[in-house]
């Protein structure tokens, strides 16, 4: 999408890496929809979360397909087709693994970013995938596609596979086909676990450094108290 000029396309890493506080708004939206806590999001609320974006994809936005379609009736919708079995197997190895990652769960008690991101990630899977992604994921996937097809007028809907290349996508969006630019495949999940572990280590290091900084501050505080008391005692003796 970025190569077609949609520079600000909102996706899962927009929340998980680029701006973790967004997770708090997504959590509000999930609670409103699935728990009845708070008011359902209106276009004003979605603008607050997504207003700077030219497009939105991926999760957690997919949990709000109906709400987003109704909030932005002028938008075009690209329904990316995938074989349900390969999608499920891929998600089990990647995002579902992340949901069940004990390192991330522990980090969520100490890391500023993980404390916002992980609860929302788990809430998304507990609600959208009915608390049982391994067994319910495929059924939810199929139902989601059927729902999108029923909500979007045919002239605003493109059912698309990435193997189709640039032409049908560009024609639907009214964009020129990029010249001398092969269709990208940047969502390669082969090293997903490695990259996630690397992020965990960075967050652990940040937590450790913050803890060390706090210990230094506390140490200096007690040193100053001791020093003042010692100087006071010395002055009394003299």
UniProtKB/TrEMBL annotation:
InterPro entries: P-loop_NTPase, Sulfotransfer_4. SUPFAM superfamilies: P-loop containing nucleoside triphosphate hydrolases. Keywords: Membrane, Transmembrane, Transmembrane helix. It holds the Pfam family Sulfotransfer_4. It comes from the Eukaryota. The chain crosses the membrane at residues 205-226. PANTHER family: P-LOOP CONTAINING NUCLEOSIDE TRIPHOSPHATE HYDROLASE PROTEIN, P-LOOP CONTAINING NUCLEOTIDE TRIPHOSPHATE HYDROLASE. This is Uncharacterized protein.
């Amino acid at each position: 999408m970025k190569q077609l000029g949609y520079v600000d396309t909102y996706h899962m890493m927009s929340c998980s890496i680029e701006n973790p506080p967004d997770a708090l708004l997504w959590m509000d939206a999930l609670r409103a929809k699935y728990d009845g806590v708070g008011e359902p999001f209106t276009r004003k609320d979605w603008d607050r979360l997504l207003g700077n974006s030219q497009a939105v994809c991926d999760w957690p936005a997919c949990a709000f397909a109906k709400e987003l379609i109704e909030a932005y009736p002028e938008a075009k919708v690209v329904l990316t087709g995938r074989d349900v079995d390969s999608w499920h197997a891929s998600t089990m190895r990647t995002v579902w693994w992340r949901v069940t990652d004990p390192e991330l769960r522990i980090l969520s008690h100490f890391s500023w970013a993980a404390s916002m991101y992980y609860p929302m990630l788990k809430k998304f899977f507990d609600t959208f995938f009915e608390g049982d992604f391994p067994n319910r994921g495929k059924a939810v996937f199929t139902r989601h596609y059927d729902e999108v097809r029923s909500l979007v007028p045919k002239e605003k809907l493109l059912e698309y596979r990435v193997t189709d290349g640039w032409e049908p996508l560009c024609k639907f969006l009214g964009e020129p086909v990029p010249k001398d630019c092969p269709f990208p495949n940047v969502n390669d999940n082969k090293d997903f676990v490695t990259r996630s572990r690397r992020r965990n280590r960075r967050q652990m290091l940040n937590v450790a450094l913050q803890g060390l900084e706090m210990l230094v501050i506390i140490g200096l505080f007690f040193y100053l108290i001791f020093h003042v008391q010692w100087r006071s005692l010395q002055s009394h003796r003299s």
